[in-house]
Amino acid sequence: xxxxxxxxxxxxxxxxxxxxxxxxxxxxxxxxxxxxxxxxxxxxxxxxxxxxxxxxxxxxxxxxxxxxxxxxxxxxxxxxxxxxxxxxxxxxxxxxxxxxxxxxxxxxxxxxxxxxxxxxxxxxxxxxxxxxxxxxxxxxxxxxxxxxxxxxxxxxxxxxxxxxxxxxxxxxxxxxxxxxxxxxxxxxxxxxxxxxxxxxxxxxxxxxxxxxxxxxxxxxxxxxxxxxxxxxxxxxxxxxxxxxxxxxxxxxxxxxxxxxxxxxxxxxxxxxxxxxxxxxxxxxxxxxxxxxxxxxxxxxxxxxxxxxxxxxxxxxxxxxxxxxxxxxxxxxxxxxxxxxxxxxxxxxxxxxxxxxxxxxxxxxxxxxxxxxxxxxxxxxxxxxxxxxxxxxxxxxxxxxxxxxxxxxxxxxxxxxxxxxxxxxxxxxxxxxxxxxxxxxxxxxxxxxxx
Amino acid sequence: xxxxxxxxxxxxxxxxxxxxxxxxxxxxxxxxxxxxxxxxxxxxxxxxxxxxxxxxxxxxxxxxxxxxxxxxxxxxxxxxxxxxxxxxxxxxxxxxxxxxxxxxxxxxxxxxxxxxxxxxxxxxxxxxxxxxxxxxxxxxxxxxxxxxxxxxxxxxxxxxxxxxxxxxxxxxxxxxxxxxxxxxxxxxxxxxxxxxxxxxxxxxxxxxxxxxxxxxxxxxxxxxxxxxxxxxxxxxxxxxxxxxxxxxxxxxxxxxxxxxxxxxxxxxxxxxxxxxxxxxxxxxxxxxxxxxxxxxxxxxxxxxxxxxxxxxxxxxxxxxxxxxxxxxxxxxxxxxxxxxxxxxxxxxxxxx
Lengths: 450, 352
Fold this sequence. Notes:
CATH architecture of chain A: Up-down Bundle
Number of helices of chain B: 17
Number of helices of chain A: 15
Order of helices and strands of chain A: HHHHHHHHHHHHHHH
Strand content of chain B: under 5%
Number of strands of chain B: 0
Largest sheet of chain B: none
Radius of gyration of chain A: 23 Å
CATH superfamily of chain A: Formate dehydrogenase/DMSO reductase domain
CATH class of chain A: Mainly Alpha
Largest interface: A-B, 41 and 46 residues
Shape of chain A: globular
Distance between the termini of chain A: 21 Å
Structural class of chain B: mainly alpha
Number of domains of chain A: 1
Oligomer: heterodimer
């Protein structure tokens, strides 16, 4: 609930027209540059790779992946949790920063929300990919059928499906509602007939009247207030997939909040990386400033410290547990076959972000982006290790087994990253990557404060 | 800001309550476990307000915002009073043997390593003492330092240490009453309920005034939702797992009269605040907040009794009621008169 000094967030002496031009011109008046074309082509190929791998997976079955009888969830569910974590952050950032009146929100909320939509969509693919019989994914929905069968509502997986679908629908609505005034701006600035018609239809007849703004603000704030519990519920329900089982290391009450903290941590990390790319690619240096990165650096540091507290609590609790399997699990984390990866994960998530205590490093965009990339690798390792460590050392020693990913596992992961990049690149050329009307409000606040 | 309620008779009431408890202890030695559990429930409640105030001051040092400036006159004496809890914790530390089963039977701590290195009387006293000293030092620094990089550094580091200390305190003070039970989210849940308690305390004293009332209402709503979320998610995970040593903790607290205690607590500190705080008009009204706050605090106090009292039997409930009066009386009487006066010039300087 704070409104800090805003002088460094917008260039001095700028006007609303100049701000709109800065954001809209790359879409309407400038052709895509060579780097964008190359990136779009590469990500398009990776998307095709994902489609090809998926087709092969459906034809041959999940035997082509590294999943085995011990580590049944393998890469796909780890990827799912990682992507849904990234998808958690966008709507949360946008809603929480709106409700707490953070002026730096305006520059980052739009592409963060787009990131959410794409990441949640991709996340939703993975559980289906690992089903083995993907055509039965339909059974997760409470559809009317002649056999009178209903999903088992005591299963965390059914709730997870419902949570993801609700979140995706909600995030889409929230994203679109925030976009309407900007779509009207694009409609008014479009030079081609097609642009005028498409943006015009999407703008739903927005005229920017006082009544429109009043209704828009009321609805938008209400949705933002609803978004926060929803965001928390999504990753909590994903955590319940794990903690509802009785496996050592998973049956932990801290899992729901711990997954939420981890999701915001990795999601913020991804926002930092995207902010740097969009700033560079669309020439938005005047709008996305080093101060934005400094503030996001502080959030990353807080996230890392929150993760440290969660890890420490887990270790202490497992060490105190009477259950032999819990203590064995703890020992396996530090000395088992995945121990080097576990130490790498701790380094990425806990040690490297501590650099951000330094104000000088927080002020350096490459440093903050570097930390964000490292922590996203760390968070991916964490998701993978949560699955590998527990499932490799269950209660039955005869069921102990190590997971080795196959080429297909890696290709599907690379394909999903490519697909995400493909969608983000398309977004950056079709819709304003920064909320222009929010920048306008910020400008008015800055002027009235001056 | 209004003075806290019952500030006038607080100190005599606190002293009388403590004397009655002391007398009960002398006349009826068999009631020692119930009296100790009652004292623990009261300590958790009042210390929770002070710790919540400390955490809010630290959060405000990092985030800024007018709510923190407005609430400071209420929060500062609460946080500044933390050293008082060093003597107030003494009765608990002197009753470890009657309250915690692992003192007499170290094998209950689980693995022998745990009993030797961690869950023993010396470790308990050391951790409690260090935590209280840490909080006292943090409060002193946050109240004395001028806003700037040094205070922000203290606040950031302090919040991390606070998270660790509250987690350990929650494990030691509450969960080790049933040493087989572990809930990793308990510390976090305690931390959020402390924030809620401090915000409700600020609402009771009308700390926010008209300016920051909307912010206080929003923060209260968020804290209520957070506390409900963490409480429910712990229950859900344990219900779902249905493992004997974990379920037993809830089964003991699901029997009469404890179930009714928690149901009343949920009504007062969960449902009622949601009903009052969801409509914008009420949420932003300092008068509505002040009327809601005593019920909310009563609900939190009942929740602490629900956590602690089943370990010592139903007689710990009247003991908890009396101890809440005693600890609260001593705390309000000492924190809000001498301490508030001592902190007042510093608070005015900050406001200026």
